[in-house]
Amino acid sequence: MADDLRCYNIADLRERARRRLPLGIWEYAERGVEDECGMARNRAAFEAITFRPRVLRGVEKIDTSTEIFGKRVPFPLAVAPTGAAGLMWHKGDFALAHAAAKAGVPFIISSASTMDLEQIAEAGGRQWFQLYLWEDRSLSHAVVERAWQFGCEALFVTLDLPVPPNREYIQRNGFGTPFRLNARNTLDALTHPRWLMGVMGRYMLEGGIPTQANLPDRLRAKVTKGAPPGALFKQDDLDWDGARELRDRWPGKFVLKGILHPDDAERALAMGADGVVVSNHGGRALDCSIGTMEALPSIVEAVGGRMTVFLDSGVRRGSDVVKAVASGADAVLAGRAPLYGLAAFGEAGVARSLDLLRAETARTMAMLGARSVAEAKAALMD
Ligand SMILES: Cc1cc2nc3c(=O)[nH]c(=O)nc-3n(C[C@H](O)[C@H](O)[C@H](O)COP(=O)(O)O)c2cc1C
After folding, report:
1. Whose Cα sits closest to atom 14 in ligand 1?
2. ω before 178 within 30° of 0 (cis)?
3. pLDDT for 185-207, tens place per residue?
4. 137 pLDDT more than 80
5. Which residues, including other chains, have CB under 8 Å from residue 273's CB and lie 6 or more apart?
6. Which of 25, 42, 82, 105 is the best mutation target for the ligand 1 pocket, counting ligand atoms within 8 Å of the beta carbon and taking the most?
């Protein structure tokens, strides 16, 4: 049996990923910010929700599919944007996108990806693009135009990092930007030879460690150097007018990611957004923010049915997907779950993570007596 098939849940994939990655990369993928209360709160909010199942409903056939932006998806989940997937696996962004395409699951390309979006688009399937704004706004506008040109049907603008987050472990591990080789991170890499050879070694053979690939060649700084002027993400000056400008520039579906307040969701609707992501960045932005499952109901009440409501941060089980949908979300995004699969086994591991989440979603629905997503939506209410 292939090793990835010996992982029976996301926690198994997580453990494999932890063992494979150097501590500095592992902590970057896994950890939150400051005291990591936000991550715990996200999970606690999922765990606080219980189902009251119905019986004798004939659950031989379960249809987990649903419609997102007018097209069917096999179950209510898309792969969240995660920059630096390329540090977990050689050409990790492509592996994520390709596994998602094969599973029929939409994939969101991160603007911080280490592969150019054109190369990722070659993976096929349904792709969306996530935007952080570079200080030089013309760079962002150019990237967004390319995303449209290469077939991305939706733009997700991430709003929950108006300033850089406080990730102290990054400094401690010596994995900051610019990257500086020191005794600690050298030893860390050397003691993870499979990662060193399979990921770093392959990049070295190809000419160097990848960096912000969505920038024009002249601005792609080496990881050991700081970004050139204008090429740093900077959106502390972004406001609703700026968001409106982006909306007007983008011909496709437009989504604001990182919404936790119903008033902001209403404003998003009023300015012409097609969706919001109820998200606290997986507990990686503001440590003391509300758990996303706690924030969801009032946002659904404010805008549900009039725009697409996604939820992320803490999805680790199919039952979490069902809880989110039953609480009014149209779909969830999964960030770390597919990343664990990627870091452990590459594309096969991503496929495994999506298979597991889908199978668990179907099983939970059957247990609940919900034969369709519409019936699952009613599961907490009747
Ligand atoms: C390693 C890592 C990198 C991320 N990079 C981005 C990014 O580039 N853009 C973005 O909008 N969100 C990014 N996120 C946040 C995810 O899109 C998503 O909101 C979060 O991972 C959801 O929580 P979960 O990991 O518990 O599923 C990243 C998350 C992780 C774990």
Report:
1. 82
2. yes
3. 899 999 999 999 999 999 999 98
4. yes
5. 247, 254, 255, 256, 307
6. 82
Q: Is the CB of 318 under 6 A from ligand 1?
A: no
Q: Does the pLDDT at position 382 exceed 60?
A: no
Nearest CA to ligand 1 atom 21: 335
Q: Report the nearest-CA residue for atom 27 of ligand 1.
A: 335
Nearest to residue 280, comparing CAs of 268, 271, 269, 288? 288
Q: How far is the CA of 283 from the centre of ligand 1 (A)?
A: 9
Pairing type for strands 331-334 and 77-79 reads: parallel
Output phi, psi for 25, to 5 deg: -75, -40
Q: Is 212 in the pocket of ligand 1 (CB under 6 A)?
A: no
CA-closest residue to ligand 1 atom 8? 83
Q: Measured from the CA of 156, which atom of ligand 1 is nearest?
A: 11
The yes-or-no verdict on residue 62 having pLDDT over 70 is yes
Ligand 1 atom at minimal distance to the Cα of residue 29: 1
Q: Annotated catalytic sites, by residue? A: 281
Angle between helices 347-368 and 10-20 (to 10 degrees): 160
Q: Give backbone dihedrals phi and psi of 275, rounded to 5 degrees, phi first.
A: -165, 170
The pLDDT assigned to 293 comes to 98
Give residue 1's pLDDT.
87
For 160-165, what is the mean pLDDT?
A: 96
Cα distance between residue 218 and residue 136, in whole Å: 14
The string of pLDDT tens digits covering residues 334-366 is: 999 999 999 999 999 999 999 999 999 999 999
Q: Which of 212, 284, 315 to mutate to test the pocket of ligand 1 (most atoms within 8 A of CB)?
A: 284
In 42-53, which positions are buried (b, 16+ CB within 10 angstroms) versus exposed (e)? bbebbeeeebee
User: What's the CA-to-centroid distance between 30 and ligand 1, angstroms?
Assistant: 10
Taking 70 as the threshold, does the pLDDT of residue 381 lie above it? no
Give the span between the Cα atoms of 286 and 127, in whole angstroms: 28
The closest residue, in CA terms, to atom 15 on ligand 1 is 281
CB 363 within 8 A of CB 320: no
Q: Which residues of 91-114 are buried (b: 16+ CB within 10 A; e: fewer)?
A: bbbbbbbbbbbebbbbbbbbbbbb
